[in-house]
Amino acid sequence: MLKTIKNSLALSLLPVLMLANFSVAAETVAKNTANKAVSEKLTSQSYTLDQAIDYAIANNPDLQIAIERINQAQAQLGVALSAFYPQVTARVGYETSNNPAQVFSMIVSQRAFEPNNINTINNPGYRQNFRPEIIGKLSLFRGGQDYQNSKAAELGIDAAEFERSTVHNALIEAVTASYYAYLASIEAQKVAQDSISAITSELNQTKLKYDAGTVLKSDVLSLEVKLAEAQDAQIRAANGIELSKTNIANLLGLSSFQAFTVAPSSSILTKPKLTASFNDLLELAMTQRPEVKAAANQVEISLRKLKSEQGAYLPKADAYVSYGQNSQNPGFSSSRDNVTAGVTVEMDLFSGFNTQQRVSAAERKAAEARETERKTKLAIEQEVKIAYLKLEEGLARLRVTEVSVLAANEALRLVNEERRAEIVTVTRYIESEVARNKAQSNTIAAHYDALSAEAALKKAVGDWK
Question: Engineered SS bond to 80: which of 150, 257, 443, 450, CB 3.0-4.6 Å?
Fold first, then answer.
């Protein structure tokens, strides 16, 4: 039942959204076998709508994942900024050779050259060289790539924050829709149970009259059919309660062992209403929906990435300094240390079209981001329109059902008087009572449908970002 609520709920429960900071008492049952699960006994917690929303915001795993992605984006910014700092490396090298050029270089580097070394320069024999050193390097220019990458990383933090806002907005709407669906199912079950009680009572009396020969068999059969319909409604309402409660538990991140109840909230007593025109709401949505901001953010990131790739066409310059020593033994002596410093400039003349293809891919990525932004705006416009129309429909249904309840109550009163005067059959009386119960059920459903539609509209314009 409650088709509108279910459709709204199905749309809003996409990624979403679960929690866990729960006030409970746990009790572990001993394990008898390796495959036996551990069960918990937890006290029941009651939630109003506001409490359920607060609990979800504090504990929902999807929201926590979004927060961790913000932290990841901040770390990525640190990685990008590291390119502006010197890079220092320590290393130790060892080599041995009898190559005359290599040996001569080792002798000179080790500060061990003597005049008689000239006599054995062609046959120096084997010589070894240990070189511990510290190397420092600083990037002076990389075609603007480091700068563009750092700016893209800064925008990445904003993108992660927009993602968190999106999850937050959808989570509140999903909790709200599930909450109203649960309460609507509770009310529908009460109406079904009242119908069952009334029909059962009338059926028992009619059977007695049938046994006495004062009513027809068709009257008994008609009541049995009505009873079956009421029982079917009761079964569907009970199932709706369990499904709604399961959805709420899923959003709250509660395990199957954790018991909780849903408490009525003051919000259910308020009558939903439209507070602005569609154009005003659409303008508001385009201003504050995090998805719109995230799409624009992705366009900017893609442009920064494109500029970074284009920077590969420009020269690169690095400064470096090396401090170390050369020795035949692993020990260190300041008398044999040496320092080398310099600047290197390089430029790719031909990279096998690698740079060209990377730039082309970045251009296509930027074009994709622009189309994604346009698609996002169109989707939000559609979402706002649908939510607006559903709220209009919900309010209209609510007005109609409220009138139908008054009419159904009056009809039942009149039929009851006619029945006492034995003017109408018992079937007509039961039909009137069932019609009254159905009108009440429709009013309850319309009320919660309208509340859910109002919540969906608030989500559509980004009220809970």
Answer: 150
